[in-house]
């Protein structure tokens, strides 16, 4: 007999002989083959509704992944229907059937076989419904779910800097269980609650509370058995409890306390977990009715306002990130694997803290933090503003209860949060209305604080403020939570980066006795942008590095900073944003697709204890620059990240020597040659030899365009800009402008465009440019330019001139925290100039705003023949207003 068959036979024999019957839970997803349609008009709960032409989708699903990414402002916010025929076989008859949602944004109404089952409000918490009474066995059942992501003034969040993707965007399950079962009705919690009232090195106790339901028509007597296993599966402790439940009864007070000597603790470096098996047996113990397994971690922790955070008695600085749950072109509809990957990336960076923000996330995120030893804070999405209604308050409190009960057993969770920058969008500026608003917000805060403290006295509470303490003080919000979270952006929204540390010291002094965590900080970094003159708002990788280095240094110097969660682990979608990448907040240290930015490598080097070495600028594969050595090379600096003392870099097999690392990296002046370049880094850390390699394509531009050793092919120049941009779609390297010198190329006349902001001016603009996915190429500009000259050899050229009108006649609001409040822009329309190429007028009256509108990409390609060694001269003739040019591409046809 085949071995497998033999094994199966043995198991069957065993089961029969042990006399034990199983009646356990069955849990599986029903993610696939849903019919989907936007709109509300169809009464899709009815059998008669024809869905044959509806789209077929799989869950996780959102209906906004494309329209929240396109050029049209806004995204669909309204109702939509999901429909599915569900065949349930007869074997489940007589059992309880539950449908369980991990999350759907944001209001849900569920129908089964045309009957209303129930509804749920709130887009980020889990919920479930008992559908037993409406289910038909051995037949198809019509499941219809109406999901609505329209603005609802009574459901938080009302506004926030992230896109409210609608849909059933997390897994959906069916669960079948015995009528006597561990209850699912308590805010979709697991029905088992673990509390660890005493934990120290020598002893720990765990109180296991089971919520039990009897849905039989008669009274029943059962046994609850709890067994604790260690991580190797060895039984450590066991208890039994006899319970009698009348029909329809749910008991919540079924608790047992167990003691464990010398517990193996859950810690950041050793996230050890025991397993608690909670089993329900019939009285004779012959049938296992239900079973829930709960991981159990023993740890104790404390936040000290002066000294910071202690885990199991050991001081730890909590260093990590916040995280949003979306991904490139997928919106928030992510498979579990993508969530898992994010937590792995955080761990790999050496992070030990995750701010699960601004809302509870997929259960696998929490599971991973438990498994990997990452301390977490979880919060409900009460962001930016409140609505002064009891319903808003009630919904917020319900969310808080869901949050706490659903992730109650997680050893990784140490903080519950509520309210993020709640006064960012105050609807009133003064008077009685503002007073009332303060009062109401305080009431919401106090109620949430009390609710959470009552639900779970074992953890800390936290609220995050923006840099406007006077508002929070006016409403007493700085007093209410146990931990103050500060979201700080000095050196980004505010000009002076040194204000960061002053602010920390002020807050520490001002709010004596309060624990301080830097809950957010970060600059926007478009991974495609680089600069050797980095500055605020340029979105360059290099400014990102300067900013993060400053913040990390200052936080490390201050023990009272218990921890920090930089903003953000990943780039994320925010519909109202108009930065380098439209609708995207680029403050991630990883890209939307989790590409590694230099800032990620910087943290990895700073935080991780094992030896690491990584060449920076990793994703800058199409690079370019102008010859700046005698040897026909272009020297550009490249960071090499390492926690070794020194590193050596080889370029095309030549050593550039060794360099000492400082703050985790060394900058090498790398001489790039035209075409392929190979970078190889070596370092030694202790006994470990480290090695890294990177290949880079470099487009070298000669400084003498008629030079035959480096024949001219093309130049791509951004005007009014010291920045480099990588067009990753076409692999084209854009380089900064330079002033014209004979024999070479460059601009004549004019000044870089600077935009006024609430705090001085910035180079270039941050408005979204329509009609392009290369905003940085259009966001800078030379104003008053007279000519662009290039002394190219004779031949035929395609000369493309790039424009976007950046000036509008309406002033933009001050940039600071100006999230989602962009005013409509109207046209200037008064700029007109002529263009001639090599003396021939090609356009006489060019008006960008008139012809294309405001902030729209316009490219004109001219085919030009260069003769008699005269090169190219593109001249701009001012008529009205100033001449402008945003970028130029000169490409040699032949
Ligand atoms: C904040 C908010 C966060 C934003 C961030 C930003 O303070 O809490 O939701 O995304 O600033 O990037 O402006
Ligand atoms: Ca999931």
Automatic annotation (TrEMBL):
Per the database record, which ranges form the Glycoside hydrolase family 2 catalytic domain?
307-604
Keywords for the protein's UniProt record, in alphabetical order: Glycosidase, Hydrolase
Domain (DUF4982) spans 637-686
Cite the Glycoside hydrolase family 2 immunoglobulin-like beta-sandwich domain residue spans from the record: 196-299
Q: Where is the Glycosyl hydrolases family 2 sugar binding domain?
A: 48-174
Q: Name one Pfam family in it.
A: Glyco_hydro_2
Is Hydrolase included in the keywords of this UniProt record?
A: yes
Domain Malectin stretches: 766-878
Does rRNA processing count among this protein's keywords? no
Q: Which family does it belong to?
A: Belongs to the glycosyl hydrolase 2 family.
The protein depicted here goes by the name DUF4982 domain-containing protein
Which organism does this sequence originate in?
A: Bacteroides difficilis
């Amino acid at each position: 007999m085949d071995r497998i068959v033999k094994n199966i036979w043995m198991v069957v024999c065993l089961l029969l002989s042990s006399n034990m019957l199983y009646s356990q839970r069955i849990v599986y997803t029903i993610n696939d083959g849903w019919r989907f349609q936007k709109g509300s008009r169809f009464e899709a709960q009815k059998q008669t509704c024809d869905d044959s032409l509806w789209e077929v989708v799989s869950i996780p699903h959102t209906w906004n992944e494309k329209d929240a990414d396109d050029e049209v402002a806004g995204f669909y916010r309204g109702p939509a229907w999901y429909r599915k025929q569900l065949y349930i076989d007869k074997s489940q008859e007589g059992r309880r059937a539950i449908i369980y949602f991990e999350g759907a944004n944001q209001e849900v109404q569920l129908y089964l076989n045309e009957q209303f089952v129930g509804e749920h409000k709130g887009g980020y918490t889990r919920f479930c419904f008992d559908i037993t009474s409406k289910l038909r066995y051995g037949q198809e059942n019509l499941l219809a779910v109406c999901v609505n992501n329209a603005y609802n003034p009574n459901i938080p969040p009302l506004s926030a800097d992230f896109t409210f993707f609608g849909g059933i965007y997390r897994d959906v399950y069916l669960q079948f269980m015995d009528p006597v079962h561990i209850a699912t009705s308590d805010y979709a919690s697991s029905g088992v609650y673990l509390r660890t009232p005493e934990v120290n090195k020598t002893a720990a106790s765990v109180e296991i509370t089971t919520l039990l339901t009897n849905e039989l028509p008669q009274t029943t007597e059962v046994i609850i058995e709890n067994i604790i296993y260690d991580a190797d599966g060895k039984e450590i402790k066991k208890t039994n409890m006899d319970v009698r439940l009348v029909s329809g009864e749910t008991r919540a007070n079924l608790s047992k306390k167990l003691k464990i000597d010398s517990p193996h603790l859950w810690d950041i470096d050793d996230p050890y977990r025991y397993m608690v098996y909670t089993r329900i047996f019939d009285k004779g113990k012959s049938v296992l009715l239900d079973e829930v397994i709960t991981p159990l971690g023993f740890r104790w922790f404390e936040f000290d306002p002066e000294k910071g955070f202690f885990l199991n008695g050991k001081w730890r600085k909590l260093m990590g990130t916040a995280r949003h749950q979306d991904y490139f072109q997928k919106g928030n509809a992510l498979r579990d694997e993508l969530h898992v990957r994010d937590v792995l990336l955080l761990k790999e960076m050496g992070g030990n803290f995750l701010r699960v923000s601004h809302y509870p996330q997929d259960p696998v995120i929490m599971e991973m933090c438990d498994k990997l030893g990452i301390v977490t804070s979880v919060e409900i999405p009460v962001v930016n503003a409140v609505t002064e209604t009891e319903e808003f308050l009630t919904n917020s409190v319900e969310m808080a209860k869901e949050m706490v009960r659903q992730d109650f057993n997680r050893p990784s969770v140490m903080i519950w949060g509520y309210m993020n920058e709640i006064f960012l969008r105050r609807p009133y500026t003064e008077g009685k209305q503002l007073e009332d608003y303060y009062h109401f917000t305080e009431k919401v805060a106090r109620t949430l604080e009390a609710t959470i403290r009552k639900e779970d006295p074992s953890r800390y509470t936290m609220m995050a403020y923006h840099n406007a303490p006077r508002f929070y003080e006016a409403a007493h919000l700085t007093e209410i939570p146990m931990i103050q979270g500060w979201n700080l952006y000095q050196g980004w929204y505010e000009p002076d980066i040194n204000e960061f540390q002053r602010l920390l010291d002020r807050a520490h002094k001002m709010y004596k006795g309060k624990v301080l965590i830097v809950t957010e900080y970060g600059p926007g970094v478009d991974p495609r942008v680089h600069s050797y003159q980095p500055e605020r708002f340029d979105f360059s990788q290099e400014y990102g590095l300067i900013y993060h280095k400053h913040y990390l240094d200052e936080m490390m110097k201050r023990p009272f900073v218990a921890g920090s969660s930089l903003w953000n682990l990943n780039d994320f979608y925010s519909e109202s944003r108009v930065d380098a990448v439209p609708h995207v907040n680029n403050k991630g240290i990883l890209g939307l697709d989790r590409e590694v930015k230099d800032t990620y490598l910087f943290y990895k080097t700073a935080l991780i204890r094992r030896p690491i070495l990584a060449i920076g600028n990793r994703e800058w594969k199409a690079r370019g620059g102008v010859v700046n050595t005698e040897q026909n090379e272009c020297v550009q600096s490249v960071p090499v990240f390492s926690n070794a003392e020194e590193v050596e870099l080889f370029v095309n097999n030549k050593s550039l020597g060794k360099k000492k690392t400082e703050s985790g990296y060394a900058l090498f002046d790398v001489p790039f040659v035209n075409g392929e370049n190979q970078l190889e880094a070596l370092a030694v850390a202790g006994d470990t030899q480290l090695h890294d390699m990177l290949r880079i394509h470099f487009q070298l531009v000669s400084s003498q365009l008629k030079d035959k050793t480096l024949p001219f092919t093309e130049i791509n120049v951004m005007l009014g800009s010291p920045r480099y941009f990588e067009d990753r779609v076409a692999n084209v390297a854009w380089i900064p402008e330079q002033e014209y010198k004979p024999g070479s190329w460059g601009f004549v006349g004019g000044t870089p465009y600077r935009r006024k902001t609430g705090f001085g001016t910035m180079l270039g603009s941050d408005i979204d440019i329509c009609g392009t996915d290369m905003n940085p190429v259009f966001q800078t500009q030379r104003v008053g330019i007279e000519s662009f000259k290039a002394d190219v050899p004779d031949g035929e050229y395609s000369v493309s001139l790039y424009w976007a009108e950046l000036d509008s006649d309406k002033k933009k609001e001050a940039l600071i925290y100006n999230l989602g409040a962009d005013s409509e822009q109207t046209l200037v329309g008064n700029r007109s100039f002529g263009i001639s190429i090599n003396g021939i007028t090609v356009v006489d009256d060019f008006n960008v705003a008139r012809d294309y509108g405001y902030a729209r990409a316009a490219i004109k390609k001219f085919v030009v023949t260069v003769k008699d060694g005269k090169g190219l001269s593109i001249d701009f003739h001012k008529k009205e207003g100033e001449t402008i040019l945003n970028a130029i591409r000169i490409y040699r046809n032949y």
